[in-house]
Amino acid sequence: MLGSEAVAQQRDRPTLSPNITLIDRFRDRVDLPAPTPPGVISIGREKQLFVDDWMIERRTGSRRTFHPVRKHPANPLLTPERAWERPSVLLSGSVMYDPNRVQDRFRMWYLCYTPVEDPVTGESIRKDGRVCYATSVDGLRWERPAFGLHPYGSSRSTNIVIPAANGFPGVVLDPRDPDPGRRYKAHARTNRGHDAFFSPDGVHWSEPHRMDLDGYDRSSVHWDPVRESWAASTKSWYRAAPEALEWRGRGYQESRDFLHWPRKAAFMAGTTEEGPEIVYALDAFYYESLYLGAWGRYVAEPNAHLDPQLAVSRNGRHWTRPTEAPWIPLSPLPADYRRKPGPRTPTGVDPLDPRVPWDYGNTNINSLGPLRVGDELWIYYSGRSSDHRSRPQTGAIGLGTMRLDGFASLDAGRKEVEVVTRPVRLTGPDIRVNVDAGEGEFLMEITDLAGRALSQFSFDRCRPVRSDGVRQTLSWRGNPELSIVGDQPVRLRVRLRSARWYAVWCGEERRWSSPDTETWSAAARR
Question: Do 373 and 422 sit in the same domain of this protein?
Fold first, then answer.
């Protein structure tokens, strides 16, 4: 017998299309086998993070902490002010940052979702929307350029750049494309399905081109720099066994040209009917040496909340959620709020009530993932005062920030702890770490595979780190060159006390601001 959550999902279940694959997970899947670490892990310019134990052989006494974003106090930064934006502006969309630009260092493409709904029940009569464009110098105060490219009603001075889009996974900059007219690529959901748009500048867009994606509306596309291809995370329905109930999850497809997806979707991620939730979205991005993503967790009962959790993958196909905690927490209702269920508010929370926080019920992130702004990561996200079942679907856009590389850390309290890596090969001139040891201490030694310290790189010769910094170069007395170690596999042994360790790498780090198709290319990663 199905639980209440499974019944709720079946209630929300759309009519399945005969043109979209119902995936048989028992035979069509890309998530297995799960990847395993290589015998020797190369440490170069690509930072190694501690979101999992990929690089760790053993650790004693340390704890792993996952860090949520810090919500900006000025949130929300963009609200639905114009007639063509109401009632929601959403990311569904993308934000780019280029410090070399002047008046528009930050550029945002966002969805104005304006469905036609029954005024009493809130039931959708027709999906409607459009893509708009905004710019900012500081990333906090946003302007809407009046391009006048696409009128809305009697207004010709709009910032609409793509009309007639009711879903908008986002925009990506593709400097690899030899056609300058296709440097910007957009994926939008229109009344005819998935469409691609191309642009030389991100403002003037082509007519729509049909994308033969094998998925429903909440599908997204990202660039995979390792395979050098486009990868799709599709909204799909699947069966775990021939006679099993259809269940919602995420499918996987690949494309070389953004338009044609020759293989049907195969299973990538999902939950089971025994659990309380489904994966509503999985928006992936590459970061330094691994794939990360926002796993959209939808729990239908009792509150119909949808929030993103951090997802981790070492191959872009097999995904795990290393923590149950949300990456961007939903804001709670006031303690004295009284729910009043009604036809358009089945959970009892009215999204038009000013007491309901703007990001109470539903959040999703910039499709490109974090931007690097100075020594911080900026994560733009949209929030909704509406939960997933209430109407109208409101929306606004805000900002969360994190420490650079700050998704997770290995932490020590006052008692010293030790961490030992798997065999590694050091491929740079020095070892650098992102560590907060401002109230404690961080030490490292290099050992052979048997655990014997290399004499010039032992603990007793290591100059301790006793400061907080996102890039700190390790050194040992006598200043030995790391080239002494050569190509031999070694281990790193670390001792820390009252400290947090976020990342390790060798040599000059890769500098970037907005991820595009060249940011993490093979050439850039060297």
Answer: no
Q: Tell me what the mean pLDDT of segment 75-79 comes to.
A: 98
Instruction: For residue 110, tell me if it sits in a domain.
Output: yes
**CA 297 to CA 311: how far, in whole Å?**
11
Q: What is the pLDDT of residues 162-187, one digit of tens each?
A: 999 999 999 999 999 999 999 999 99
Q: Check whether the bond before 208 is cis (ω within 30° of 0).
A: no
Token pair in block for residue 169: 């996974």
> Which residue(s) pair with 136 in the sheet?
106
What type of residue sits at position 135? T
Side-chain half-sphere CA neighbours of 183 within 13 A: 9
The residue from 387, 406, 425 where one domain ends is 406
- Four-point Cα dihedral 124, 339, 385, 356, nearest 10: 150
Report, in this order, helix, strand and coil percent for the chain, each rounded to 5: 5, 40, 55
With tokens 């239908």, the residue in question is 300
For residue 20, being part of any structural domain is answered with no
Is the CB of residue 8 less than 8 Å from the CB of residue 471?
A: no
Q: Do the domain assignments include residue 28?
A: no
Cβ neighbourhood burial of 72 (10 Å; 0-12, 13-18, 19+)? middle
Domain count, the chain: 2
For residue 158, the tally of other CB atoms under 10 A from its CB is 24
Is the same domain home to 387 and 453?
no
Predicted pLDDT of residue 1: 36
Upstream peptide bond of 87 is cis (omega within 30 degrees of 0): yes
Helical ranges in 308-457 per DSSP H:
none
Give the range of the structural domain holding residue 52, as residue numbers without chain letter: 41-61+409-525
